[in-house]
Write a structure and sequence with these properties.
With 433 residues, the chain is an alpha/beta fold. The chain has 17 helices and 14 strands.
Length: 433
């Protein structure tokens, strides 16, 4: 496998370009987006619909406060109301699930969402309303159970879209129940789409059937994520809001403040960076359980003038502005199946320093040498190596600028939603053939 260009896995000559009728079980969908899964589901379904396909999405009805039926950019969205069965499910749950404590209600919500969504698809849309579907796409453990149930009733193909695994997210631990759900999804699905070659390797090592796995990277809207459309005065205002001077280099980290995203080791790397490049600031944007620990490290290492934490969710437009205001982006994730924040940073013409150990889709995105270099690979477990990677970018302003230009060029050529959607549809058609 050559990192840089996705291989064309479709072995079947599909002569018909007729529109497909696609049902997605995605859990997250606007206005409820918590992470990369929601972003992916939003963008891929919009693009599929824009190409003339009939797209239906089943999403969670968060706190039962959303419309049960809606339309969004040509997509039909169903959000079934889900009663609270937490206490009922608890009666026959195993020790693994009971150990979730107050978070058990989350598991119950996921199961309810799958049950009611599958029921609505099969009974209401197909049997009562006469709608037909060609294929089902179930995303992660959050949506695969509904997909399995609908497949068995409707006798149509099922794709299991794996964005991450419980083993990877929990650094080898996690819930045995969720792992079982994921494995069942791999067994029942007709095809498994995953988001990087690193994830393909992980799934094979976990025992998923190799012959079912296809790789399709995530995508980016390079017109929306475009540095040329951001007014310079807005960029300068944001930098001033964070106390960043004109002669200072602003590093930017964005992500959940949890262990696997690597923010702790990034803070530990900063003293070595600042000792050589004192005009450097780091902005950490995200929320999570590590916030207090990070603030403690900042105080202990006397970094209060150089490291800023903004602990809150921001809108997509604010996120884009933060990329624009940064000089480079550092993402030292220990586990990152794809890493859409990396693609966003690249589209925004920023050099990227990324974790490249273990399961890392970011190392497939980032070219580290030659005329197309767009960033640096580092060992996210080693603060010294993180510092080394940052200093590689800081050492030459001209080289850093070229890396940013290469990054945007690569995002346009390899990660546009047009490319990603076509590949996804080709995989669907391979399954249908």
């Amino acid at each position: 496998m050559v990192i840089g260009v996705q291989d064309d896995i479709s072995k079947v000559d599909i002569t018909s370009e007729k529109a497909l009728k696609i049902a997605h079980f995605s859990w997250e969908f606007p206005p409820v987006i918590w992470g990369g899964l929601g972003t992916f589901a939003t963008e891929i379904t919009k693009k599929q619909a824009s190409l003339g396909n009939k797209v239906t999405v089943f999403a969670v009805n968060y706190q039962n406060k959303l419309q049960t039926f809606d339309k969004y950019d040509g997509i039909e969205i169903y959000r079934p109301l889900t009663p609270d069965f937490s206490s009922n499910f608890y009666l026959f749950s195993n020790d693994d699930l009971r150990s979730w404590g107050t978070n058990f209600s989350y598991f119950a919500d996921v199961i309810n969402y799958n049950l009611f969504s599958a029921s609505q698809l099969v009974d209401c849309l197909v049997r009562k309303s006469g709608k037909t579907f060609d294929i089902i796409d179930g995303h992660d453990w959050l949506g695969i159970l509904g997909g399995i149930a609908a497949k068995k009733q409707l006798k149509i193909p099922l794709v299991f879209h794996v964005h991450s695994t419980e083993t990877g997210r929990s650094d080898g631990g996690g819930s045995k129940t969720i792992k079982s759900i994921e494995f069942e999804g791999g067994k029942e699905a007709d095809c498994i789409i995953t988001v990087s070659y690193a994830m393909e390797d992980e799934l094979e090592n976990l025992g998923f059937p190799k012959d079912k796995i296809r790789v399709c990277w995530n995508g980016i809207d390079t017109e929306k994520y475009n540095p040329s459309i951001i007014p310079n005065e807005k960029i300068m205002q944001l930098r001033r809001n964070y106390g960043v001077l004109d002669n200072q280099h602003l590093l930017f980290f964005i992500g959940r403040l949890v262990k696997v995203k690597g923010s702790e080791n990034l803070v530990r790397a900063m003293p070595k960076v600042i000792s050589e490049f004192p005009n450097t600031k780091l902005l950490i944007l995200g929320v999570g359980g590590l916030e207090e620990k990070l603030r403690g490290l900042i105080k202990d290492f006397e970094l209060t003038k150089n490291v800023i934490i903004k602990s809150e969710f921001v809108t997509e437009q604010e996120r884009i502005l933060h990329y624009a205001a940064a000089d480079s982006v550092v993402l030292p994730s220990l586990y990152e199946p794809f890493g859409i924040v990396c693609t966003e940073a690249m589209a925004m013409q920023k050099p990227v320093i990324v974790g490249a150990r273990g399961t890392s889709g970011m190392k497939e995105q980032v070219i580290t040498s030659g005329p197309n270099q767009c960033g640096i690979h580092i060992n996210p477990n080693d603060p010294d190596d993180i510092a080394w990677g940052i200093k590689q970018v800081l050492s030459s302003e001209e080289k850093s600028k070229v890396m940013g230009q290469n990054a945007r060029k690569r995002a346009i050529e390899q990660f546009s939603w047009d490319i990603i959607t076509k590949r996804t549809l080709d995989i669907y058609k391979e399954v249908l053939a």
